[in-house]
Amino acid sequence: MVKSLANEVEKAAYLSRLAEKLKLEESVLWRQLEKEESLEEAAAPAVSSPVRVSASKKDLYLVALLLSLPPERISSAVRRVADGDLIDPGLSGIISSLREYLKSVKRFRLENFSAKLDENARKSLQDAVLAPFLGDLNPAQLEEEFGHAIRGVKNARLSRERKVLVARVREADKGKNALEARRLQKEILKLTEKIESL
Questions:
Q1: Least C-beta-crowded within 10 Å: which of 50, 57, 66, 185?
Q2: Which among 137, 132, 129 has a CA at the least distance from the CA of 111?
Q3: Which long-range contacts (CB under 8 A, 24 or more apart) does 122-125 make?
Q4: In the chain, which ranges are continuous DSSP H helix?
Q5: Does residue 13 surpass a pLDDT of 50?
Q6: Is 2 helix (H, G, I), strand (E, B) or coil?
Q7: pTM of the full predicted structure?
Q8: 38 and 3 in contact (C-beta within 8 Å)?
């Protein structure tokens, strides 16, 4: 996840915190970071494949954190995940189902929610619940980490949208459509501002 961060200051802050927790020299972590793949590089194969797309690690981490929050915090947390934030269709479906489920219950119970899902959705839910990411985080740390994760997922979505717009600007330039290129550039600027404000 750290490798995927675009902001070098943020990357350094996370590595510093990690070095402190693991009681390691920061230089060791920096060397290891160079060898790691970013989440985007390690992402799932092309969607055209008929095989089930494996979860993006960012998506999986976010859903794992969400489901680990105290039951009374899950409803407000799930409202922070927008449609389109998650790449993985299975995990995106879990979030949609969770939104619907929470409309009809007073308190979230994982086993009751799981019982409402079909077999494929239950597999995605199980992947998230059993994800080996979290260690021994207390509720306050889970909340804080969820905040970091949601910003990371939203940043990735906005970056994907920006790449699409950049490609469309190139097409407009090739087609000598200056008006369309300027309109798209304004959209790119707005997206960039959103990314920087996260």
A1: 50
A2: 129
A3: 123/90, 124/55, 124/88, 124/90, 124/91, 124/93, 124/94, 125/67, 125/94
A4: 8-22, 26-35, 57-68, 71-79, 89-103, 110-115, 119-129, 139-174, 178-197
A5: yes
A6: helix
A7: 0.64
A8: yes
